[in-house]
Specification:
about 200 residues, mainly alpha, Recoverin, domain 1, 10 helices, about 0% strand
Length: about 200
């Protein structure tokens, strides 16, 4: 992974006009590590490629010209939860054949009969999860609760806190997280000596 980070440093620092990857001293890296929540620290320490890709996507999709802001992270969280609600809602809407706002077990069974093999079990599980009272129907109140639960599954409060903590990697404290700053922070955390790494880990 250090090779990947080194390559990224070369790539990100090479083009004219592009900001260079900041290099932190050991003391700065240790001080930064102390501020990070455990899940974020561990992913940075392990050189998570998925986190690197996720941050690059967030900067490109939810960021501004200068980088990712706290507001952009909030937008990402809201978008993820909305997408989860939409995905969970679709089968319930399809199953509501009489459009009365309530999905009965019989309606869901009809939808399952029309659904390709391999997806029927998931529809059954979704209906069971949404049927909070166990009365073989999902009314509007149950549907709202079910959608909120699916949104929380996709983006929990803990997940949201980790994303918001990314702004701790805004090394120049200008309110914008750049890919160069993220890469520099990841490199700094990875290169900490074992005896400098936070005591609780």
């Amino acid at each position: 992974m250090r090779c990947l980070i080194a390559c990224l440093m070369l790539i990100l620092g090479a083009p004219a006009g592009r900001a260079e990857v900041p290099l932190l001293t050991a003391d700065q890296a240790a001080a930064l590590a102390e501020t990070l929540p455990d899940p974020l620290f561990e992913r940075l320490r392990g050189g998570s490629r998925s986190l690197l890709a996720d941050v690059a996507d967030m900067i490109a999709s939810y960021g501004e010209a200068r980088g990712l802001t706290a507001e952009g992270i909030d937008w990402r969280v809201a978008a993820e939860r909305a997408a989860a609600r939409a995905q969970a809602l679709t089968p319930l809407v399809k199953a509501d054949l009489d459009a009365d706002g309530t999905v009965t077990r019989a309606e869901m069974d009809r939808l399952m009969a029309l659904t390709a093999e391999g997806s029927r079990g998931r529809l059954d599980l979704a209906f069971r999860a949404a049927d909070l009272t166990g009365d073989e129907k999902v009314d509007e109140r149950e549907r709202r609760v079910y959608l909120m639960l699916r949104a929380a599954d996709r983006m929990s409060v803990a997940d949201e806190e980790v994303l918001q903590a990314l702004m701790l990697l805004d090394l120049d404290h200008d309110g914008y997280l750049t890919l160069e700053e993220f890469t520099g922070a990841m490199l700094a955390v990875q290169t900490l000596d074992a005896d400098v790494v936070r005591a609780e880990l």
